[in-house]
Write a structure and sequence with these properties.
Layout: H1 3-11, H2 18-37, H3 40-57, H4 67-86, H5 103-120, H6 125-136, H7 141-148, H8 152-173
Helix pairs in contact: 2-3, 2-4, 2-6, 3-4, 4-7, 6-8, 7-8
Length: about 180
Amino acid sequence: MEMDEVITRVKNGESHHFAHIVKHYEQKIFTTVIRIVKNRAAAEDIVQDIFIKVFYSLHKYKKIGSFNAWLYRIVVNNCFDYLRIQKIQTMQIDSNVMDNRYPEKVLLLHERNEQLEKLLQQLDETEYMVLLLKYVNELSYDEISEVLQISLNDVRNKLHRSKRKLRSITMTKGGYFYEM
């Protein structure tokens, strides 16, 4: 079933179809939220709040823009609200992979994630969000523009500048990400 059809059915009172929306977006939204708030427990609560808001606000969604952009605007707003309230700027992100059979892989993955987070922290908030929405959530430039409420040209420029900035940092400092 296409997402537009699912949305229409939910809007028409067939609320049991909302589970399709949750199943389709839950992991991507969780990944986005945890990268922004850097706190697993808070991310779980925020994702739950997001889906509650989406459910009760779905009637407001008009097919003017994409559903992805509408949804991720809610995601970004909820994350920023949380950060404003908690005033949390830096915390280590938990590694999601735990495999006792290969502890060296877990350690290397954790180390790589830490290095990546340190690199990403050197970007400004908008550059970070553009990268996150583009490469983690696979949103189009138009959708990113709509979510962040910046021009399409700004999306392209921020994406280019942030990749160039990360490339420059990795070339001077080395580490896992020298191939960027």
